[in-house]
Amino acid sequence: MTLVYIALGSNLASPLEQVQAAIRALGDIPHSRVVNVSSFYRTPP
């Protein structure tokens, strides 16, 4: 198994929903799994 770290971010409408959808999509990739997800942070634009 290869371990990778992926950083996600969004400045689109509904950023939290966008990132959560991306995490779900990553988990749907065959032969892969999401092991852990860090806290979400919001920063000013």
From TrEMBL:
One of its GO terms (biological process) is folic acid biosynthetic process. GO terms for molecular function: 2-amino-4-hydroxy-6-hydroxymethyldihydropteridine diphosphokinase activity; ATP binding; kinase activity. It is an enzyme of class 2 (transferase). Pfam families: HPPK (PF01288). Pathway: Cofactor biosynthesis; tetrahydrofolate biosynthesis; 2-amino-4-hydroxy-6-hydroxymethyl-7,8-dihydropteridine diphosphate from 7,8-dihydroneopterin triphosphate: step 4/4. Its EC number is 2.7.6.3. Residues 5-45 form the 7,8-dihydro-6-hydroxymethylpterin-pyrophosphokinase domain. Keywords: ATP-binding, Folate biosynthesis, Kinase, Nucleotide-binding, Transferase. It comes from the Bacteria. SUPFAM superfamilies: 6-hydroxymethyl-7,8-dihydropterin pyrophosphokinase, HPPK. The keyword ATP-binding applies. The keyword Acetylation does not apply. Transmembrane segments: none annotated. InterPro entries: Hppk, Hppk_sf. This is 2-amino-4-hydroxy-6-hydroxymethyldihydropteridine diphosphokinase.
